[in-house]
Design a protein that fits this description.
With about 450 residues, the protein is of the alpha/beta class. It contains 9 helices and 42 strands. The protein is about 20% helix and about 30% strand. Bound molecules: uridine-diphosphate-N-acetylglucosamine and magnesium ion.
Length: about 450
């Protein structure tokens, strides 16, 4: 059986008071529409269709080829919105799932249940409802005396009696496709707003004596629709709790989960501890047995196993295993720290590889550099990689000792086993096993290396 989703995303989102289309506002680091697409994936068999209108260009650009799109212009209501997909879908699918794209907490499992219910329904509609004391402006579900669903009444046209109804329209439906295309043409224009409401399809079915199935959801949180920035914040907090809970159930410890912010795509291995006030963003992957935070921000980075990252900021970085860094260290794009690297306070690394066992304890900047194994970077070392026009590379061999406050003026090569004296300004390549001092540094003697030459 072919099942296709139609996601509505053409509305103006006026109440958001934003230049960004509503469905592109992020929740847990992903636009709301990403969450909607993610949720309907499991219960549909065909590529989803997104109805775009307000901010169409931006939404289409974001969607890429993850969905087909149809334009709704002007935007004349939710029923009119679904109708725009008729030309694309008529005769091509058996069931149609319609969802609004402003409900990022709606779970895939709930939509699966919705589709299963419709597969067994003799009537043309299955829909999601919820019972709540807080109506949030949702449509009210009107049932007949025999308990079957009769209609959905929008809040602003409801009578005082109807407003008392606590069963609400969540905004998720599964329709028999053939019935839907015919019914949409018969939905009357709402006299007050001049719009065509999808919700009126329910009354049409009921008048035809066709059963409408309602699934009453018990998780209120899932049903939150985002119409204002207050709702957006509610959803963000709820999503954060959901994501953190999942990680904890998978073996990740959190000392105070309320202060941990993890975006939707982040992966974390077991026995890793996330300390308070930590933000994990983008495509971040963290292995097992690490301690991350407190006070740490990590974007798009990869961390192996057994690392400690204290009060630091990482962006586009890669830590292998047993790295120990912070407090107050910053890794920028292309920073790669090998096994057992130690990076202390106030260091910055960018576009550089620090091989296994490198130590960089205090106040250093390393950019566009390759550093050999077990080399020591003294306090205050700077790779002077930028001449005002271009970036230049620094290559430092293994077992090198860079003295405190050394300026390494790139392009530059420091041979294995070399040393620089404190305050050296190195402007010329340094051969292996050589001590250089001064400004600019000049060779003064040949050295004996303590560790064996490899
Ligand atoms: C809608 C429902 C209401 C339900 C509530 C749940 C209708 C008439 N009302 O109200 O019963 O309780 O959702 O959240 O359906 N859209 C279009 N084109 C349009 C109008 C809207 O694509 O012409 C899209 C919007 O972008 C949005 C969705 O449809 O994603 C719902 O529109 P919205 O204005 O948020 O409807 P609600 O007032 O929340
Ligand atoms: Mg809404």
């Amino acid at each position: 059986m072919k099942v296709t989703a139609v996601l509505l995303a053409a509305g103006q989102g006026t109440r958001m008071k934003s230049n960004l289309p509503k469905v592109l506002h992020p929740v847990a680091g992903k636009p709301m529409i990403w969450h909607a697409l993610n949720a309907i994936q499991k219960s549909t068999t065909e590529k989803p269709v997104v109805v775009v209108g307000h901010g169409a260009e931006e939404v289409i650009h974001y969607l890429g080829d993850s969905a087909q799109t149809v334009l709704q212009d002007p935007q004349l209501g939710t029923g009119h919105a679904v109708l725009q997909a008729e030309a694309l879908l008529k005769g091509k699918t058996d069931l149609i799932v319609v969802c609004y794209s402003d409900m990022p907490l709606l779970r895939g499992e709930t939509l699966q249940k919705l589709v299963e219910t419709q597969k067994n329904n003799k009537g043309p509609i299955s829909m999601l409802t919820v019972v709540s004391d807080d109506p949030r402006g949702f449509g009210r579900i009107i049932r007949k005396s025999d308990g079957t669903v009769e209609a959905i009444v929008e809040e602003y046209v409801a009578t005082a009696e109807q407003l008392q109804v606590k069963e609400l329209n969540v905004g998720g439906y599964c329709f028999d496709a053939n019935w839907l295309w015919d019914a949409l043409h018969r939905i009357p224009k709402n006299p007050k707003k001049g719009e065509y409401y999808l919700t009126d399809a329910v009354e049409l079915a009921s008048k035809e004596g066709l059963p409408v199935q309602a699934i009453v959801m018990d998780d209120l949180e899932e049903t939150i629709g985002v119409n204002t920035r207050v709702h957006l914040s509610e959803v963000e907090v709820a999503m954060k709790r959901r994501i953190n809970r999942e990680h904890m159930l998978n073996g990740v410890s959190m000392i105070d989960a309320d202060t941990v912010y993890i975006e939707a795509d982040v992966k974390i291995g077991r026995d890793t501890v996330i300390m308070p006030n930590t933000y994990l963003h983008g495509k971040t992957e963290i292995g097992e047995g690490n301690v991350i935070g407190p006070n740490t921000i990590i974007h798009d980075s990869k961390i192996g196993n057994g690392c400690k990252v204290l009060a630091s900021v990482l962006e586009g970085a890669w830590l292998e295993n047993d790295v120990d860094m912070g407090p107050f260290a910053r890794l920028r794009k292309g920073a790669h720290l090998g096994n057992h690297v130690h990076m202390g306070n106030f260091g910055e690394v960018k576009d550089s590889y620090l091989s296994d066992g490198v130590k960089m304890g205090h106040f250093s900047y390393i950019g566009n550099a390759q550093i050999g194994a077990n080399t020591n970077i003294g306090a205050g070392t700077i790779t002077c990689n930028y001449d005002g026009e271009k970036k230049h590379a620094t290559e430092i061999g293994e077992d090198v000792f860079i003295g405190s406050d050394t300026m390494l003026v790139a392009p530059l090569k420091i041979g294995a086993g070399a040393r620089t004296g404190a305050g050296a300004v190195v402007t010329k390549d340094v051969p292996e096993d050589t001590l250089v001092v001064g400004m600019p540094a000049r060779a003064i003697k040949k050295l004996e290396r303590k560790t064996k030459k490899k």
